[in-house]
Amino acid sequence: MKLCHQHQVAAVHDRSWDRGQQIFDPRHYLPLLERKPHSLDHGRPFENWSLPACFQILRDRLEAQQDDGMREYIRILRLLEKYTPAQLARAIERALQLGVYHADAIASFADPLVCWVSTTFSLDGRDHLRQVKVSPCDVRVYRCLTRWAGAMA
Fold first, then answer.
1. Domain ranges, residue 27
2. Residue 2, beta-bridge partner list
3. What's the pLDDT at 95?
4. Distance from C-alpha of 56 to C-alpha of 50, rounded to nearest angstrom
5. d(CA 61, CA 101)
6. Per-residue CA distances from 118 to 115, 121, 122 (Å)
7. Are 57 and 117 within one domain?
8. Which of 27, 126, 137, 142 is 20 to 30 A off residue 20, Cα-Cα?
9. How far apart are alpha carbons 110 and 90 in whole angstroms?
10. Residue 74 and residue 81: Cα distance in Å, rounded?
């Protein structure tokens, strides 16, 4: 069944012809979670939501390490609006390996890497950046870091 708004398809749902049966797509309720985060544990659309195991591992770590871990986890779930569960699972697994538990980092892992060599930065539409002057870096100051790192070994 297609739901339309102003001649645009807003959502596509499976239709059940059984009496009293409801079919939910949890991804359609993700924006609501930001206002009502405990709906994730108690809302009907999320009751039988099957996600890869890495999602639960990430959630457990976020909630153990951050006061707002639930909200950060919801921000990560919102990435399902852009990525498939498999794409996001790969990104979460990489984040877990690196110990990075932030939605922005996981989103960057989910995007395919762009070769920076083939990209060109353009100042078009960025007139405010034309006035910025960056002085060359003196790499000699970093030698102290290699000495310090050697002392730590």
1. 1-49
2. 12
3. 93
4. 10
5. 8
6. 6, 10, 13
7. yes
8. 27
9. 7
10. 12
Compute CA distances 62 → 9, 56, 57, 71, 74, whole Å: 35, 10, 9, 9, 11
Complete DSSP assignment for 84-100: -HHHHHHHHHHHHHHT-
The pTM of the full predicted model, rounded to 2 decimals, is 0.63
Q: Say whether 2 sits in a helix, a strand or coil.
A: strand
DSSP symbol at 18? S
CA gap 95, 75 in Å, rounded = 15
Kindly report the number of other CB atoms within 10 A of residue 34's CB atom.
12
Which residue's structure tokens are 């390996």?
A: 97
If asked whether residues 45 and 56 sit together in one domain, one would say: no
User: Angle at Cα 88 formed by Cα 86 and Cα 94, nearest 5°?
Assistant: 105
The position carrying tokens 């999320």 is 46
| Banded pLDDT at 115 (limits 50, 70, 90) | low
Residues 73 and 39 reside in one and the same domain = no
Q: How many residues does the chain have?
A: 153
Average pLDDT of 35-54? 88
Cα end-to-end span (Å), the chain? 63
